[in-house]
Structures are given as structure tokens and as C-alpha cells.
Design a protein that fits this description.
By secondary structure, this protein is an alpha/beta fold. It is built from 14 helices and twelve strands. The two termini are 16 Å apart.
Amino acid sequence: MRLLFLAVLRRHTGNSITAQRVRDHLEAAGHVCILKDPSDFESPSEISNFIKAESLEAAMALHLYRGGRLLPGHGIPFGIIFGGTDLNEDIKQGEKNKVMGEVLEEARFAVAFTESMKEAAQRQWPHAKDKIYVQSQGIATVPSTTFNWNTFLQRSEINQSADNLHVFLLICGLRQVKDPLYLVDAFSAWHQEEPNVYMVIVGPEVDPVFTREVKAKVKRTPGVRLIGEMTREDLHAVVKNCFAVVNSSVSEGMSAAILEAMDLEVPVLARNIPGNAAVVKHEVTGLLFSDPQEFVRLAKRLGGDPALEKQLVANGREYVRMYHSWQVERNTYGHLVRMLEGSSED
């Protein structure tokens, strides 16, 4: 079967990585999957022409609003994967909410990463409850074997000779919903007390205006560094070498960066929001903080308690192995896509 798959494809963002992984699953099941960004199409007629020209028989979209709204009305069956901001942010806006409800009505299936995402969707659109499935993200990490940590520290202008160096890594696209500046002032105050701690923000420049604000702030803030996007392999190598991975987002569907850190046996400190609390159990698989001061308290505790670090790492790794199997994810999408086969509309 030939499928169109719509997803926002900014490099190395969570949605982009998920989309590429799901495409690989679909192609492994013998389908042809053409991955496109919704911004590639300026109008419904452009999508319609593309579907005809490519002889596409079905479609999928990652993100109910951004991708999903473009799929109804083309005479082919489709499925949806919730992204995160669709259920956490777009749902609050009347017109977007209405459009998403209409998309769900026509979709053959919808996938939520967590039970709480499924429940949120069911509350909002009760008519769709029987077509929503839960499939957590499947995680596979591929750290580069040629990556040089010392070179990375030099590039980040971090004092490698600092005694007991602790690098905290915040991985995110530079946009407001990821709130990369949330911890910056509190972290910098801590760095001035303890010069061996650094925060490094890594990720692509998604929102140009906000990126300028982040760059300006980081430039004048001791102990905080900003690095542009990296290849996935190098990023995983950085994660493996850092002291802990941090997430300070206002909203998350399911953070791949958190799960990848767990897979690579690195401790996680995450802002206490529903998407993060769904995968990080406080003091079991990671640490949850509610404000910058609590983050610093927990980070200091982690740094001074090797037994806690060892426990979080072991539990996190086991959690990912049990609940975020790449093979189970592959099987699920292989099953779901069969709902689209042989059911094209006339």
C-alpha cells in the first residue's frame, strides 16, 4: 500500500524523530510511505493533486491539528497520531478544537502515547473513544562511537579541568513551549557557587524570534551554554557522557529525550507536568521539580548521593525496556495500518 504521512519535520525535534521511526515501521511491513511536512502544501487542492499523482491509497498524520486537518475530503482512509501540543494547547482554542473533532470523526484510528492523553481526547471528543489506541514511543538509541567528549566540552567553552565536572543537558527545539530559559537564572546562581556545574542547551532553532531571545540571555548568563542541533548519533553520545538530562517544558506529549536518557542509563530531572509525570515517577525513574529552586535542590541532592543516582538509572533503564519496546511499537503500527488497507472510499 502507498501511504502519505504528514508530520512536522524540523530536524531532531521529537515529532520528526517519531515520524521517521513510524515510517520505518510501515516500510518494514511492506508499505511505501511518503513522509511530507504539512507546510509543503499550500492548499487542500495541492494535497489532492499529490495524492492522485503518487497513486496514494491511504494516509497518516502526526499531530491532530497541524497534519490531520489536511487529510479529510480526499477519498482515502487515514489514521492519526496525537503529538502533544494538539491535546495540551490547541484543544483550548475553539476553532482548532472544532476542526480536530471533525478530523477524528473521519479518522479510522488515533494513537495516544499515554493513557492520560487518551483520556484527555476521550473527554473532549466522546464520539471517538472506540478508535483511540495507546502506544507509547518505542526507544532505540545509537550513540556515535567516534564522538569526542573533550572536543564537545571545548566547543561549549566548558572548563574540562573543573573538579567533579557535572554537565546538565537540556535537549529541545528553541520554541516557547519548551521553555529553555525556565531554569537559567537559578542554574547560573548555583554555578557561581559551584563552578563545576554547567547547563548545556542543545537543539534546533525552531522559532527565529524566540531563538534570538534565548541566545541573548545565554550569552550574558554564566554557567549556561547553547549548542546548535547535532546528529542523532552525536546527541546520544553527549547524553551518555553528561551527568543528567533535564526537561523544563511547559507541555509535552511524551519526551523522547527523557526516554533516550533512561535507555542510555543517565539520570533525568523533569518539570512536573502531566506528559513528564506519565513517564518519570519521582524518586523511582527520575526526579520531578515544580520550580527552578526545587530543581537546584534536587540536582544538588543527586550530585551528592551516588546511591540515589544508581537507583534512578537502574529503574529508568528497566522502565524503558518494559514499556517502550521498539519491537512492540513496530507490531502495533503494522496492525493499525491494516485498518487502512482495502478500505479506500470511492
